[in-house]
UniProtKB/TrEMBL annotation:
Keywords assigned by UniProt, alphabetized: DNA damage, DNA repair, Methyltransferase, Transferase
Organism: Streptosporangium subroseum
Name of this protein: methylated-DNA--[protein]-cysteine S-methyltransferase
Similarity remark: Belongs to the MGMT family.
Ranges of residues in domain Methylated-DNA-[protein]-cysteine S-methyltransferase DNA binding: 105-184
Amino acid sequence: MSSGDIDALLRVTSPNYIGTSHPDIAFGTLDGPVGRLTLAVTNRGVVACSYEDENIVFERVSREVGTFIGPDARRLDPVRRELDAYFSGRLRAFTTTIDLRLATQFARTVLQMMLAVSYGTVTTYREIAERIGRPRALRAVGNALGSNPVCVIVPCHRVVESEVVLGGYAGGPAVKERLLRIEANGAGHAPGGS
């Protein structure tokens, strides 16, 4: 979707949007080495960094966060720069703030735990479930990670089923493996932590 397409979509779906004003929610995309990411940034932080189609993310953000949505380079470009630096192996920790309003309360707990998993390391679904005090909630943890609205920045790709099985990922298994390889190269070891 080009910026002209996004602008046209915004005029139809966001009646308050005026092309020259700063929207409440900055909306755009980033084409990177793992495909297109759809981005949305609120005054609280990044609310979406998603592999989903722009229209799906736009509808969800407008339904659950607000309708004054539009392109805003002053808020999107810093996020894009950090993502580019991460993909090139120059950034290990994102400094951008995160807005987890699109996640359920349980998912927020799981996703907050993910922020403590260091660059270049992995953890398991079981370890996350134990850390949040719900050792039998493996499926719920998996669902929370699978619905992560802020992929890459909230590093759900760092959760694996086991040392030999990567497990699922919103961007697909090849993308998960690529992200883990980026981090392994930057951290100086293999994706399994060895």
